[in-house]
Automatic annotation (TrEMBL):
PROSITE patterns: FE2OG_OXY. Coiled coil: none annotated. Residues 197-298 form the Fe2OG dioxygenase domain. It comes from the Eukaryota. The gene is LOC107419914. Signal peptide: none annotated. Belongs to the iron/ascorbate-dependent oxidoreductase family. InterPro entries: DIOX_N, IPNS-like_FE2OG_OXY, IPNS-like_sf, Iron_ascorbate_oxido_reductase, Oxoglu/Fe-dep_dioxygenase_dom. This is Gibberellin 2-beta-dioxygenase 8 isoform X2. Keywords: Iron, Metal-binding, Oxidoreductase.
Amino acid sequence: MSMDSDPPFHKAYKSFFDKTIINKAVPSPTSSGSTSNYPLLVEECDLPLIDLSLLDLGDEAEIDNCKSQIARASQEWGFFQVVNHGISSELLEKMRSEQKKVFSQPFDMKSQENKYLNFSAGSYRWGTPTATCLRQVAWSEAFHIPLSNISGSDGLNTLSSTMEQFAAKVSNLAQKLAEILAEKLGQKSTFFQENCLSSTCFLRMNRYPPCPIPSEVFGLMPHTDSDFLTILHQDQVGGLQLVKDDTWIAVKPNPEALIINIGDLFQAWSNDVYKSVEHRVVTNMEVERFSTAYFFCPSYETVIESCCEPSVYRKFSFGEYRQQVQDDVKNFGFKVGLPKFLL
């Protein structure tokens, strides 16, 4: 990846870098200048691994056991990984290859994505516009694309068609998993089929460039996802970390698996049965990292309410939730999330 393709992190955040250098050179009386509050060296673990082929090939007991594993992992971890998920390795490899090509374009071209790449304006994102210090900077770049906007583009038709194929497959997987999770709550609702349509979901291609000070900067700050489900395909570099039992742990990459995590909306809808867990991405000094995430979302008008009583959260629309998150980030520098909606 050429240097002129990287976002201008150093230029944009020069004042933050300068402050960090000064603070390290002249530590305060109460600090050694270390980054002890940023635990990079955390234990690596395997997420719960679930074989989805049992849903189609297993007997009745195996099918029910597979569904129970999905629900249990969603309650206890908020994260799990799936194999035999119906998305071919050829398609995943093609998606990664096309993703690398688009990120290798010059920064000036990526930042005018509607002109050069036929993505809607605002799809390309990098860094953190609202950051007030280096710790709030996301050392990453991404294309965050509504599925409704994926279409052919000059010279990049292969990317568009690959994204369409990938999105169609993961959309079906998300619907299947959501229905299983609803079923395990005793709900036979068609809520997800009616409200989480291809036109309301998003695909996000991420690139995390090598970072010269990985002990100081996140690839993505700690956060929870503002959706029902996220399906992630990551490379083998590693860097994804999550909270389990109040401790940060690193997710060990599995080349055969997709990672699934519960979002805020499912936690609210399930009345706190399924957990939307805080996670982050740490940076790497030597190598770049790629991932592709699919966000399973409803329309902004969709009302989210707990599927059982007494409800933990008040009713809210997805649009209202998104606006609250944006307001909190602007006002506080971070997302507050579901606690704002507690009854």
